[in-house]
Amino acid sequence: MGRGHMSEGKQLTVIEHLTELRDRLIRSAIAIAITTGGAFFFHERLFEILKRPAGERLDLIYTEPLEMLSTIFKVTLYSGVAIALPFLFYEIMMFIAPALTPKEKRYVYLMLPGVAFFFLAGVSFAYFVALPPALGFLLSFGANIARPQIKVGSYVSTVSTLIFWSGIAFETPMVLYFLARIGLVSPKRMASFRRYAFLLAFALSAFITPTVDPINQSIVAVPIILLYELGILLARLAWRGRPAT
After folding, report:
1. Does residue 86 sit within a domain?
2. Domain count along the chain
3. Out of 79-83, 154-158, 240-244, which region has the weakest mean confidence (pLDDT)?
4. Alpha helices, DSSP H only, in the chain?
5. 60 forms bridges with which residues in the sheet?
6. How far apart are CA 135 and CA 129, in angstroms?
7. What are phi and psi of 66, to 5 degrees?
8. Which pLDDT score, from 0 to 100, does residue 82 have?
9. CB neighbours (10 Å) of residue 77?
10. Which candidate in 54, 146, 238, 242 could, as Cys together with 181 as Cys, close a disulfide (CB 3.0–4.6 Å)?
11. Which carries the bigger pLDDT value, residue 133 or residue 13?
């Protein structure tokens, strides 16, 4: 992190860096504790929201004394972290900002709204588009043989995994834009990698989706492919805007 601090005429020591990191981690932990505590008072409402994509077919149970308590804590913690994300992003940016050049800072600051938008878009896609058919398939397959009774902990883990990784996958355009903007990868190189990106999209969808049927996996894979194409278009704009070297 030396170049940014050198440009400001001040070189921080390792101890000062660690002290600053400690202080920001403490503030972040306090923020998460506050938002998690607030989310706890609405945990029943949060469970209703998580159960909604499964419709009326869902019959949650728990089989261990601490399972319900630990699942409630997990749901409220996830919600607390999501609510605290803007503050966490701020703390991260304030910590790494001295190490960035003014140009790099400008790129990062301009990207932050896009990062938030695509993450929320991925979360919304998972909740409204991907989850209902996936859960419908899982809860109806073999229903004439046995009645599904899903453990609440297993259900929350499955749903939260799909939602989180969908949000991460939707960051693809912003990642490609940033890589092109700083000159690490050219749009031409991204386009030549297209066939491998398609295979990677289906591999990623197999990891994200809880089902093994190709239809539900395609529901996740196709948007990832489209996002890669969007990323190439954004990369071309970024490449044109780079200063001549």
Report:
1. yes
2. 1
3. 240-244
4. 2-7, 14-40, 43-51, 67-96, 102-125, 131-140, 152-169, 172-181, 187-192, 194-208, 214-240
5. 150
6. 11
7. -95, 0
8. 86
9. 16
10. 238
11. 133
Q: What type of residue sits at position 140?
A: S
Contacts of 183 (CB under 8 A, 6+ apart): 242, 245
Q: Which two tokens stand for residue 85?
A: 């994300």
**CA distance linking residue 71 with residue 150, whole number of Å:** 13
Task: Kindly state whether residue 53 falls inside one of the protein's structural domains.
Answer: yes
Tell me the DSSP string of 73-118: HHHHHHHHHHHHHHHHHHHHHHHHGGGS-HHHHHHHHHHHHHHHHH
Write down the pTM of the prediction: 0.78
Q: Is residue 245 part of a domain?
A: no
Q: The tokens of 9 are what?
A: 């005429």
Range of the domain at 143: 2-240
- Residue closest to 11 by CA, chosen among 101, 100, 98: 98
67 or 143, greater pLDDT: 67
CA distance 196 to 136: 31
Answer yes or no: are the C-beta atoms of 223 and 147 closer than 8 Å: no
Copy the structure tokens of residue 214: 């190709």
For residue 2, pLDDT beyond 60: no
The total of other beta-carbon atoms located within 10 Å of residue 88's CB is: 15
For the chain, give the mean pLDDT.
85
| pLDDT tens sequence across 140-188 | 887 788 888 889 999 998 898 889 888 888 989 988 888 888 778 888 8
String of b and e for 118-130 (b: at least 16 CB within 10 Å)? bbebbbebbbeeb
Structure tokens given for 91:
């703390």
The pLDDT score that the predictor gives to residue 243 is 57
